[in-house]
């Protein structure tokens, strides 16, 4: 454990190096924190000011190693869609045990899944958890366990819920690699469900900034927060924003019903089918509680779309 000897208590450890974890590590560095970014391999592009570290946090030993010396731990780990119901609870058990043993605060990146179908009602932190899907019930059970650990005084925990991600570095999202490459190259752009319904998308930068803010504010512990999310517009409205940036109409293929298409293979479709309600009713996130308490303002979607088009242009040039 010598690698952690000089990390003191100001260390912020980010678990998971996907788009959210990577953006969060950069945001924490920007805010002046010592940062460790953990994934199973400890590889990837260098992030100035952050230490990359390899650990498997689904094991007790790996979780203890990953959080050693950290004042705040951010759980941004995700796994393949078909593995979530099996693996995410195992990761939770390991992390809660490690955080309790080390005394670190825990900030969890969460989803809207526990709410289940809302009939289009605006989602606030007071919306009932009525999930009926396997993944929704699993997420609700995890969240209840996190909040119980906090209530029992075992681990200080806060949960930051996000809508669908959009932004630089975001590939596996309904507004990711199924949208921007086709928009930039004249290829197919995929839309899911009813693209005229309002649908909230959370900028990956707002995800990072929101989680970092929770990490800096222990008074936010013990509850769920909706991370700053721009007002909902329809996916078709976002397509129109993209069309302005790329200077051509998009060739949109809408899947009114879920079926294998493009990057969505049969295994993914089989797992995602139960969540397809998210594209057949309005998905509207209200993040005003977070915005008022912490003085945050979500990035305008126009700015997020600009940044994302720019990033994908650079990404495509390297493929």
Automatic annotation (TrEMBL):
Gene3D superfamilies: NAD(P)-binding Rossmann-like Domain (3.40.50.720). InterPro entries: Epimerase_deHydtase, NAD(P)-bd_dom_sf, NAD(P)-dependent_oxidoreduct. Pfam families: Epimerase (PF01370). Residues 16-220 form the NAD-dependent epimerase/dehydratase domain. This is SDR family oxidoreductase.
